[in-house]
Write a structure and sequence with these properties.
Tetracycline Repressor, domain 2; mainly alpha; 6 strands; 63% helix; CBS-domain; homodimer
């Protein structure tokens, strides 16, 4: 069979494979080189990033009415090419998966025992059409070396081993981090990505964020007369909005990561809101007090007393409190909102939160300035 | 032995263990509950985050002059409590590790063969005193289910299994992400961290970054007379410095992650510099052109023609080019510098780069404005 197959073009192989019953398809896949397997699995219709693309078909399967001795004989015969003989799969006459047994159980059992006596009919299987992320989650949950993969009829079509999962998990984390940095995820590693591709992955978000920043221009223009009357007001804007962005980026990262490691789930949003309201307020008070003191000292040290030190410093301090609290709340709530509308929470990038906080920060700052400095600046 | 031990206090056990030869220590450890093992391993001096703290002592070890049959008998007898029988370790008379054999080799071999005939004397072992990060790297490199752990004399003291490594890798990624977001890494997961602890982990960087931002205040104050003459200059500052921060945060994340996944190493810094110089220039031109156009249109749409539209828009466009290029270069080079001075590259947080770019961006913007708008603003 292997010889027949290797003389066919991949397209013809798929045509042939589609005619074969499921378990024969797997035997044919087994006989191919791993490069050919990749090609054929793609053509068999497993979507990109699906478990079907990740699995290997090199595993050992046995029947429940075999003895331990016969099974070990079978493993001895077919185990050489298997990815792992650590777990052996039991299938029924239709090649449906009915149990998985650890190799320990064979070694530790009497050779004349029947496989069905060892079976507990409890197993965890992955679906070939599911996303590879699901496989990562299952491995992290069940602490297994390998997990079986079944199709929609429950027929065993492959296995996924934990060493492949480590690579998938690493790639996913990289994608998450790139999203969180305000860019689209690269398809290959950094060193293998062309400059052209790199620019393509980065420019979209840079332009979107730039357009978002035009709101800061418009916001500041709205306070033109205040700025014209007291240029000093402008000095503190980058400091204030950046402080809000910093607290937002901390909060967003904490929540995105907690969501992606299943430490918290969507239903926890209220608890997170309360926590972040409180921690944002504490952080806001601390930075706000320090900001008040340093700003007061800074203004006093400037040549020429303009007599506004205290009120200007108070404006800065209050604004710092406001933006840090707001940054914290938007940074922690946006990942939930993203998730709710079906987006990856990691889209809540630090730059995204920072842009939102920049606009809001300007409004907060000038509103407080207008209130506290009214009458003091002409 | 186990009975004797279980009647002793942990401190006494350690005293006793320290008197014992290495291999006996391990046997004693094996006989303890896993809670007791944790306690004793701590007391035996394996540092926190070391492989010694991660390893389990529940493994099966055999001698090279045993037959396959005797070995299987031994595995049958002692394998029940072992974390894995997928890999069996061969030790010499001094309990030094001399080889590791996969269980497949036993099952696939003739029962009368001697273990030494199966041996290839090639194995990879971890050191008990090394950092757990090293274990993650080794597992990712060697695709193994378990790796043996030896002490400084080469004596087998435990094994680490891949499922524990997944958890360690996940924790390390979380720590990296938290550093990259401009905060100290949490010791526990988000949901288990108290608000007080959360504030402690976040406030340090927030205050440091705030102090860094005082440089933006000082930088802006230096251009006080220009600002007083043309308040409009101030409108574009948040937009320009944020664009630089965005490009810097993209670059920093790309490089930090590429370094931590061993995609690139420290010696690649020159190649990275060239790449990021080029991609930064391309991104800068694209955002700069768009910035010029939009700013020009935006000023034209404002009520009251001030006749500065073109030059002001040109100033904004050129500044965008400058800050994006500078952000890209500092974001990509800082992780290398951090690494060089012995810090974690992830300390190059997005907020850290953003603060650096904020200060530089203000200087770039006002310098260009001074050059292009000289004489146009009084």
């Amino acid at each position: 069979m292997a010889d027949v197959m290797s003389n066919l073009e991949p397209d013809d192989r798929v045509a042939l494979l589609e005619e074969l019953p499921g378990h024969l398809t797997q035997r044919v896949l087994n006989s191919m080189s791993s490069e050919d397997q990749v090609e054929v699995k793609k053509l068999l219709g497993y979507p990109e990033e699906s478990i079907g693309r990740l699995m290997t078909t090199n595993y050992v399967r046995i029947k429940k009415d075999w003895t331990v001795e016969r099974s070990l004989e079978h493993i001895r015969q077919y185990g050489h090419s298997a990815e792992t003989v650590n777990v052996i799969y039991v299938v029924d006459e239709q090649e449906r998966l009915i149990d998985d047994l650890r190799i320990n159980q064979f070694i530790l059992s009497n050779p004349t025992q029947l496989i069905q006596e060892l079976m507990d009919h409890q197993f965890t299987a992955l679906s070939a059409f599911e996303d590879q992320e699901e496989a990562v989650r299952m491995f992290s949950k069940y602490d297994r070396i390998a997990l079986p993969v079944v199709d929609s009829d429950g027929i065993l079509v492959g296995i996924v081993t934990v060493d492949d999962i480590i690579d998938v998990a690493e790639e996913e984390t990289t994608e998450d981090m790139q999203l969180m940095a305000g860019m689209n995820a690269l398809e290959r590693v950094y060193s293998e990505t062309s400059i052209f591709m790199m620019v393509r992955k980065r420019i979209g978000w840079l332009l979107i964020l730039f357009l978002g920043q035009m709101l800061t221009v418009t916001a500041m223009a709205a306070y033109n007369s205040m700025l014209a009357a007291a240029a000093m007001l402008a000095f503190f804007i980058p400091m204030i909005i950046s402080s809000g962005g910093n607290s937002g980026s901390q909060a967003a990262t904490l929540i995105i990561r907690a969501l992606s490691t299943d430490d918290i789930t969507l239903i926890d949003w209220k608890r997170v809101f309360t926590r972040e309201l409180l921690s944002g307020a504490i952080l806001g008070v601390m930075v706000g007090l320090m900001g008040f003191g340093i700003t007061y000292a800074w203004i006093e040290l400037q040549p020429g007393d303009i007599g506004l030190s205290f009120m200007q410093a108070l404006t800065v301090g209050c604004s710092l409190f406001g933006v840090i609290l707001f940054g914290n709340l938007s940074g922690s709530m946006l990942p939930f909102i993203m998730s709710k509308v079906g987006l990856d929470p990691a889209v809540t990038s630090a730059p995204f939160v920072a842009t939102l906080v920049d606009v809001t920060g300007i409004i907060i700052y000038f509103s407080i300035a207008m209130f506290l400095l009214r009458g003091l600046i002409s």
